[in-house]
């Protein structure tokens, strides 16, 4: 694994833990790491393009909050940046997900999502007012759909644009 992939892997864990434990208070740690990401990434333009996917995850989490499945002690601005960090990893340290068959990717996504939200709940970052069984079942369904979509969209959005510099006009 290259140094860059190690940086990606470790930095995401640092961002996740700092945001889960410190929420908005520790947001500067994540902002500094995200800035470092864009300084050192070998794919700055492609990474910028996929950041829009973070809004989708953020909207899903806010919807879960509005529907009463998630509760936070303060407005979770940090969630948007956690989603940005997660989405950026899809094209780097989590690139291996592209090789999974759909059924395995869906299963992996559902289990991984449940584990992440369960750990967040246990660490006190989120409260499940409707109970953990109901909430984590919904999380499993949502993640089983959303993460495979993100993996596919990440691939499509990172594809190089058609270059017109090699095209020539026909001569008559």
Report the helical percentage.
55-70%
Number of helices: 7
From the alpha-carbon coordinates, what is the Rg to the nearest angstrom? 18 Å
- Average pLDDT confidence is 92
Strand content: under 5%
Q: Give a short account of the largest sheet.
A: none
Provide the descriptors you would attach to this structure in a database record.
single chain; 172 residues; mainly alpha; 7 helices; globular
Description:
- Helix 1 packs antiparallel against helix 5 (77-90) and helix 3 crosses helix 7.
- The relative contact order is 0.14.
- By secondary structure, this protein is mainly α.
- Residues 161-169 have low confidence and may be disordered.
- Helices cover 69% and strands 0% of the residues.
Short description:
This protein has 7 helices and no strands. The relative contact order is 0.14.
